[in-house]
What we know:
It is built from 11 helices and 13 strands. By secondary structure, it is α/β, with parallel strands linked by helices. It has 2 domains: 6-245, P-loop containing nucleotide triphosphate hydrolases (Rossmann fold, 3-Layer(aba) Sandwich); 250-310. The strands form 3 sheets. It has a 6-stranded mixed sheet, with helices on both faces. The protein has a 4-stranded antiparallel sheet with strand order 11-12-10-13, covered by helices on one side. A 3-stranded antiparallel sheet has the order 2-1-4. Helix 5 (129-143) packs antiparallel against helix 6.
Amino acid sequence: MTTSIISVSHLKKEFRVAQKTGGWLRNFFAPAQKIVGAVNDISFEIPPGELVGYLGPNGAGKSTTIKMLTGILSPTSGDVRVSGRVPWKQRREHVAHIGAVFGQRNTLWWDLPVSSSFDLLRDIYRIPGERYAKNMARFRDLLGLDEFMHTPVRSLSLGQLMRANLAAALVHDPDVLFLDEPTIGLDVVAKERIRQFITQINRERGVTVILTTHDLLDVEKLCDRVMMIDHGKLLFDGALAELQRRFGGERELEVDFAEPVDDASAPGARLIKHEGLRATYRFSREAMSASDLIGVLSARFRIADLSVREPQIEDTIRRIYEQQLLSAPLTPDSA
């Protein structure tokens, strides 16, 4: 059995929030407070080398969880171990073994050239010269850092800044990488370059990655496992494919006929479009499988080509939250 690199048990975080009641004098000297639960009894295990998507709407508790895992916040109750360390108790040792990129927040020195920032990081983390040189050569290659290595950080574009911050988060060979919205605000080309880098580093170095994002294409391209949180509760923890299977809605089958067809209807599927030799069908997983539908059509028509399209992950996640399809915690074993 593989030992978990991240272990979270019954994690809970509450905040005290002041409430205005009565006059200003009472609010100033004896303000009323209410307790707001940000994270409520979350437990999960992550083995080394896994790349996990941590999803949820704004205010769901994602950032609070990440802040406890990185040691920025301490929990109200519960236990967290990252590589055997308690993040908020062993903060100095902990930060030496993790990397973090938080959206558009810069971790480099604003007025210095990028190269000087990396030199400072080398000294801060006490990275041996040979290992530092090897890491930087690899990052320059994968992220194209050479084009702006001597540019002041303040003059970088958003895409360049993100690439530099990713390299900075990994230059000391961390065990775990926390990514909070790593592609926010980037164009399509820059997003794809970041995704390719994350995938490559995860495969080459076995870095464990926790990714929070609202760009669900990040999740679709990077993550095999997803965890979904809402109102501080973990509602789903399992394979992305399993989430799609349960809640993905209708699939599409696009068929190119070898000859003209008058009536392209098929039992068990909805014909949503039929133009010329091409027809598009929608069907639910519960009603029939793709192979069954293909068999029905093949028995009736001569088919030149066909393709099956899965629902977009973005549509699936939207349906889950809008229709409250996960009103109680659900794991792969609870189906």
